[in-house]
Batch of 2 targets.
Target 1
Amino acid sequence: MATGEDEAALPESEAAADLALDPLLESSDELELESAEADLTDEVPERRSSNVRQALGSEDAFQSYLRDIRGLGLLTHEEELELARRAAEGDELARRKLIESNLRLVIAIARRYTSTGVPLVDLIQEGNLGLMRAAEKFDYRRGCHFGTYATWWIRQAVSRAAGEQSRLIHLPEHVATRLRKVRRVAAQLSQESGLDPEPEQIAAACNIDVNEVIDLLSVIEQPVSLDAPVDDEARHSLADTLEDSTAPAPAETASRHLLGEELHRALSTLTPRERAVITLRYGIGDGRSRTLLEVGKELGISRERVRQLEVVALMKLRNFSGNASLRECV
């Protein structure tokens, strides 16, 4: 059985490769910041005035923001894990440093979405919210790199903001700007409290009328109830017209349920690292299988180490004296 030491340690060749990449990463970050400054300068003057100045006060404020980020150094993997551990214990300064040290990553991702028409400043602010969320959810005990983990949260936040642009395309610019502000403030309030904020709370934070907040929120989401009637007599609802062609037979549902329980018991016989490898490699839970390289990056170990852990884990699962159907799967 693998020991904790050989699971945590990286081969010397990989450690050397990581050190060799540091100067390249720093150079890449500088290029991203310079490109971000160029993107801001190249924006249409009217749009730059209506968005940048409202979002950060002035163009100078955004330039100052980029200069501040340039002065932040990159963290080593060990420093990341230490800050994440302290943040998990309630150290707010550690959490803040972990976030600030990865602000360059937000800019790098946000710049890929500038063609959507959303101002770069707005994309960066959305990405920062995703980065903050990643800092809250990150589990340092898994040993993976925080930047790799945060990339998913940042990209999700930025792409969601970019996707909403298609719904705002026909709105006047000043309305679209206020709508983005309301949605951003609502997300911040939700993150702070863990609850969906009331329109009155959003209105107070934005310093606008509550009725305007309600109108703007109605633009963001206009759901249609499945209980809505589809005829004048209200005899049938929208749900009655939908065919569920994917619904499995009751026997199949029961079989899958039993197999899932058996799989859970089988996985409990593995070490935490082996269980993580199998879960990621075969997409258990999210349906997305990863390559050896992807798993290695997420867990902070080499691709060869992932392969070794997978072989050991599969042998344990095959020897598990449980469901015959489960043994056939592995």
Note: DSSP finds 17 helices and no strands in the chain.
Target 2
Amino acid sequence: MPPTPASHDPQTPRPPLRARILGIDIARGLALFGMMATHVLPRMDETGDLTAVALLQGRASALFAILAGFSIILSTRSALAHTGGRGWAAASAGLVIRGALIALIGFALGELPSGIAIILVNYGVLFVIAPLFLRLPTWLLGVSAWAWFLVTPQLSHAIRSSVDSGFADSGLTVPAFSNMHMADTWVGLFLTGYYPLLQWVGYILLGMWLARIDWSDLHRRITLLIAGGALTTLALSASALLMNMRGRWELDSLYGEESVTGVHTYVDRVIMLGAYGVTPADSPWWLVTAGPHSGTTFDLVQTAGVAMAVLALCLLLGPLLDRGPALVHAWLSRPGSMPLSMYTLHICLLALGEMTALRTVPWLDTQTEWFWVNVVAVIVAGLVWTGLVSSRGPLEAVLTAAVRAVQRSVLGDGLDPSGGQTPADDRSPPDCQNPPDGARVSGPRRPQPPPSA
């Protein structure tokens, strides 16, 4: 685990803010393109072997969620600088309005036939919940994050195993305006869906804790990298050990060892490709798997570890890349600076391909070609928008305006929610961050193969 925060000596030089933000934008860009790969490219080949894309499954979304927690701290620091209760009230109001608008965008995207499980509604709710944790001391944020990973998977299993199968499968509905009135939609958001909030709050807490730590020290960033790798290795190794000792035998005896695909059994598929956000609730031995999107403690810890390592690498590279030509990193950092807009563009492209004959064009009829069309579209859109219009994406700009208006009304007409900072100082990660690497929507939880995520 990374070191506890230390007080910063004001005489010690800190890396430029722009370089630190550049590192975060690069991390977001990596998560964005990783998500796009899992949406479009196959995770298993014809022989039943995993492709490289399978390594990204579940990990890109965890990185986005942790960066969301990171950004919650950065984007509220100006409002919280105001003394008294109004500072916290303004920061909280900003998070609530931001979360509500993100959720509305998610409901709208859910109406499109993209074939993707949209995560924006889940993210919106996480932002609405975040004010509950803003005042926690740094040490308690860290303890809460890791305790959340340990406790909530077992709690989820206990709740889901106590109800009938219909309730347990209620989370397969993608949130949309057409079903937002249904109880199953909200049960899915919090408990049984692709990105169950019961477990995912832990990612936000971890990101908030990491954001409170002073990463200007090179040794701390290296420690974060090592800690992330160690946690990932520990979680995967412990899961494999428990599965080999007893878990695999128990699950095979329950589900049988017949292949459901001609190559792998159902248990194989869940272990290799993951589940639909949570594992089946018919055996506690599912809790020892580390499969992508299984929502177990081992899954949460290993994905959090990967995200920590990636974030550390990006924070290490940020100052180096900031001193070089922008072209070296702009293709990644510019889309990463406006993730909500770029994610929305990606979903709209996928829906366009489903609704029209676009995918039948000879040079667009393979998954690889379609993936590169999405990548090029996102890169070009990010470069053109930031080069000609604004450093903030179009949707990010709308959310920023709404948040500042709400914060200004809470603080009073004479107080500036930015705390008098210059625009450069206020260039915290965009206000509506961290789109999801959603999962493909494909039928019932069993025995269909899990969606990409």
Note: Residues 236 and 290 are 6 Å apart (CA to CA).
